[in-house]
Write a structure and sequence with these properties.
It is built from ten helices and 13 strands. It is α+β, with helices and mostly antiparallel strands. The strands form three sheets. The chain has a nine-stranded mixed sheet, sandwiched between helices. Keywords: Transferase.
């Protein structure tokens, strides 16, 4: 049985208060009176205090903006990808060093990189392999454009590698620079996205050695709620990536999560009473509340998810690893952990872990 033995995290140097980002939004988009009243309400209800970004604009007043210019001119896709390539490797490296405190990089046999906020070739996998001085024969895999659930998909790949080779040491690195794709728009989907997304990186080490202490990977289970395809989407455009995120998403998750949980538990001959801890991707406060209601949980059951949402926002694929890291560090956490993340499709990806 493969295990997650360590998780490391990193965020960019610019930490922005949610109130400052709201002020930036109001200045940048120049909304009509109706939207001007709506934006503060959405930010106040977001459950987020702080988010991080690779640029400083969100905490600055008009006239001091750098990346977006004084008139908040939409940067081109090329400009956004240029900054992605300038920032992504160093941030990823910081997360890796936090993760590999007790492991030498030359011991790594496989590297899986995950991102949906930037694409290039050579990509993050090769650039990071060079920066970390990994062996040239390191087996590389890239998971791109799968969104917020991609870390769990990467775990599934790592688990397969470790089951095939008990000596494998698989490094997963999820790095997302979501704020690069802010769009100057008063469209409700853009406004909703602007209240949530942030930048961050998380790395985890998965090994096949059963004697090593860590989170044992027991079972994966996933489902696609095809009815939600129009409600969560991520498209390329000349001016960056366009995020569609409607308020129907929490409703869909509320409808689907109970049946999915039962199907996952059946495979392990477990019941909901056998789950000690819940690691829910904090895609938004409404999503966490939808899971609580559907599964008859309390907010305290999702404390780690709410804490990550409050302090970091939604960092797409990296976020669920932030949640799991916090849980691994808490002495009170033990037993079965049900982890779930959501993404385009709408895809609901889960894994049962045991600590």
């Amino acid at each position: 049985m493969s295990k997650i033995v360590s998780i490391g995290t990193a965020v960019p140097r610019y930490a922005h208060r949610q109130d400052d980002i709201m002020r930036f939004m109001l200045d940048a988009t120049n909304p009509d009176e109706k939207t001007k009243k709506l934006i503060p309400m959405l930010y106040k209800r977001s459950g987020i205090d702080t988010r991080h970004s690779v640029f400083s604009d969100f905490s600055l007043h008009r006239g001091n903006w750098h990346f977006f210019g004084n008139n908040c001119t939409a940067p081109s896709l090329e400009q956004r990808m240029k900054l992605f390539n300038e920032e992504v490797v160093a941030l990823s490296e910081s997360a890796v060093h936090d993760c590999l405190q007790n492991t030498r990089t030359e011991e790594i046999t496989h590297l899986i990189t995950v991102t949906c906020t930037g694409l290039s070739a050579p990509g993050l996998d090769i650039l990071l392999m060079e920066r970390l001085k990994l062996p040239a024969h390191t087996i590389r895999t890239s998971v791109n454009f799968m969104g917020c659930y991609a870390a769990l998909h990467a775990l599934k790949i790592a688990d397969a590698f470790c089951r095939a080779d008990a000596s494998a040491k698989v490094l997963i690195v999820c790095t997302e620079l979501c704020t690069l794709h802010f769009q100057k728009s008063n469209d409700i989907d853009s406004i909703l996205s602007s209240t949530l997304f942030a930048d961050g990186s998380a790395a985890c080490l998965v090994v096949g050695d059963e004697k090593t202490k860590g989170l044992s990977i027991r079972q994966f289970f996933s489902k696609i709620a095809l009815a939600g395809q129009p409600d969560m989407a991520w498209q390329l455009s000349a001016n960056g990536f366009l995020m569609t995120l409607t308020n129907h998403v929490p409703k869909l998750i509320k409808e689907e999560i109970g049946g999915l949980l039962n199907s996952a538990l059946e495979q392990l001959n477990l019941s909901i009473k056998d789950i000690s801890n819940w690691a829910i991707h904090p895609g938004g406060k409404n999503i966490l509340e939808a899971v609580e209601t559907s599964l008859s949980l309390n907010s305290s059951d999702l404390a780690a998810s709410y804490n990550v949402l409050r302090n970091y926002g939604n960092m797409s694929s990296a976020t669920i690893l932030f949640v799991l890291k916090q849980m691994m560090q808490e002495a009170s956490v033990e037993g079965n952990i049900f982890a779930v993340a959501f993404g385009p499709g709408i895809t609901i990806e889960t894994v049962m872990l045991t600590l």
